[in-house]
Write a structure and sequence with these properties.
The termini are close together. The chain is globular. The strands form two sheets. The chain has an eight-stranded parallel beta barrel with strand order 1-2-5-6-7-8-9-10, surrounded by five helices. A two-stranded antiparallel sheet has the order 3-4. It has 254 residues and is α/β, with parallel strands linked by helices. The model has no long low-confidence stretch (mean pLDDT 97). It binds phosphoenolpyruvate (PEP) and manganese (II) ion. Manganese (II) ion (MN) binds next to loops.
């Protein structure tokens, strides 16, 4: 099986820019099972601060993403470029607004949101289920079971880094629990699992080696934040890789 690769910016970009990203990503459609990602409804740790180079800086206004317009841009990309799309849904309204996307993402902060999981269970969707940063594997598998209970949805587990005592570098907010990959493969046969090598590293220079390690550990694929100029990203700028790095990443994992 070709690796499953969720790739795209942290948040959906304005239409022209997002189309440019889709055009770039489309060239990898034969190499991997590609899904374009981007958050339409975004949130950040603080409404009025963001981290730049490991320091918190004040922001003039809260960034919440493009919202429903972002979901529409992803729908256009699915149709025009033939790349399945995925965005994070946090509410029933989000699920409705992204009904046409092939995939829905449950974010780490919502892994245990049972009303959301039940809503998605009833939708005919492929779902990528992030592991909560403070959740055990049993809790994660339990959430996945809520999504598949009496339904046929495809659920892909996504390890996105967990909270630990290690805080040496503030850019590394979570740590990749790579052991989760072979553990799930051994203990829950048939479960698909990928590794988010962006949120679980926080630093673009660590993305490639961890992508390689994820595949070596037996992951079915990866999720990665990529855009033309990741330093321009409204969110998670330190971890996004550029197009050249993405090309190298694909060469490394296929
Ligand atoms: C994301 O994928 O952009 C995201 C917000 O992820 P997480 O829920 O893992 O923090
Ligand atoms: Mn992000």
């Amino acid at each position: 099986m070709k690796p499953l690769v969720f790739a795209g910016p942290c948040g959906v970009l304005p239409k022209e820019q997002m189309f440019e990203e889709a055009e770039f990503l489309a060239q990898f459609k034969d190499d991997v099972n590609l899904v374009i990602r981007g958050g339409a409804w975004k949130g950040q740790l603080y409404p009025d601060k963001k981290m730049v180079n490991g320091h918190w800086v004040d922001t003039p206004k809260e960034y919440t993403g493009l919202g429903n317009e972002g979901a529409r841009i992803l729908t256009m990309i699915q149709i025009m470029f033939g790349i399945p799309a995925c965005t994070e849904v946090a509410t029933q309204d989000n699920v409705l607004a992204s009904w046409s996307h092939d995939w829905a993402q449950v974010g780490a902060r919502h892994m245990g949101n049972l009303p959301l999981l039940r809503t998605l269970r009833a939708a005919d969707k492929n779902i990528v289920l992030k592991r909560g940063m403070g959740n055990t594997i049993v809790e994660w598998i339990g959430a996945a079971t809520h999504l598949t209970y009496r339904s046929q949805n495809r659920v892909v587990l996504c390890e996105r880094g967990i909270s630990t005592f290690e805080t040496t570098d503030p850019r590394i907010r979570w740590r990749t629990d790579l052991l989760a990959v072979p553990q799930i493969k051994a203990d829950y046969p048939g479960r698909e699992v990928i590794v988010d090598v962006s949120h679980s590293t926080g630093r673009r220079d660590l993305v490639l080696p961890m992508a390689k390690a994820a595949m070596a550990a037996g992951a079915d694929g990866i999720m990665v934040e990529v855009m033309k100029d990741p330093n321009e990203s409204m969110t998670d700028a330190a971890q996004g890789i550029d197009h050249d790095m993405f090309k190298r990443l694909i060469e490394t994992i296929v």
